[in-house]
Amino acid sequence: RAKEAGRGTYRFFASEMNEKILGRRKLEAELWQGLERREFTLDFQPRYDTRSMRVRRAEALLRWRHPTRGLVSPSEFIPLAEETGLIVPIGEWVMRAACAAAARWPEIGVSVNVSAVQMRDDQLAAVVADALLSSGLEPSRLEIEITESVLIEDADRARAVMLELKALGVRLAMDDFGTGYSSLGYLRSFPFDAIKIDRRFVADLGPRGEARAIVQAILGLGRALGLTVTAEGVETPEQLMLLRVDSCDEVQGFYLARPLSEPDLLGLLTGGQAPELRSASGGARG
Ligand code: C2E
Ligand code: MG
Ligand code: MG
Ligand code: MG
To answer: What's the gap in Å between 246 CA and the centre of ligand 4?
Structure first.
């Protein structure tokens, strides 16, 4: 009986696995199609200078408008795009679209996420150079966000690619800082201009407690190494207030602004401050 049950279980798992594989293959095919059919778009989330509370740059965030599934979140398709290598052509589209958009904006810069797989592509710097050239965007207005995992997997290669990118004149930021394993000293051996404090530390931020101590330590490190420090995931006025008190350079999060379509971003830039922002900066001052 046990044997029978075991076989049944096996059959159950096998069919479930088939379904999973089929589902993934379908999604993979749809990703290709999505690229061809221009189903990808970018939203832009404003990042504010903490002192002036003005928008300094915007982070490009990839969105997939699937014809039947609707809006698919990057956390659902980016891992598969990375495994299949599709992130390389998708990432190239993102880079070109983000540079072209930023070239239309007044002054503010753009920040583009680049994953570990893209960092291993030896065409990356050439693609970035071409995106800058064809859009006419000043290189200093482009920032590239890289996660810590890139540095751990193949540090020498990552450093070489980063130096190629720096030679183009773009800024480099470490994304989700604090979630990986790289030590603070290790950070110094890479040509970063900025670090982004992961939102898990920001989420736990209170006047007392560990999260604030961690944020203050990262800010101290950033200052010592001459890096711009951004806090991401700012959701409450209290978090904003503490980050201002501790002199964090830049803030980004739902409390200030959600990721926006390009027209909405431009509306926010030209129409002055967003309503949320007015109350946010007013609240922090008062
Ligand atoms: P990330 O680079 O750390 O981007 C920040 C994520 O946090 C975004 O999620 C953003 O919408 C979200 N976020 C912003 N403010 C808040 C907040 O106040 N609270 C909370 N809970 N979340 C906030 P999104 O757009 O779903 O992107 C998820 C991740 O997907 C990104 O994390 C990035 O790693 C990746 N990604 C997005 N676009 C691209 C892309 O074009 N290329 C690559 N390679 N990766 C991308
Ligand atoms: Mg990012
Ligand atoms: Mg991040
Ligand atoms: Mg992330």
So the answer is: 24
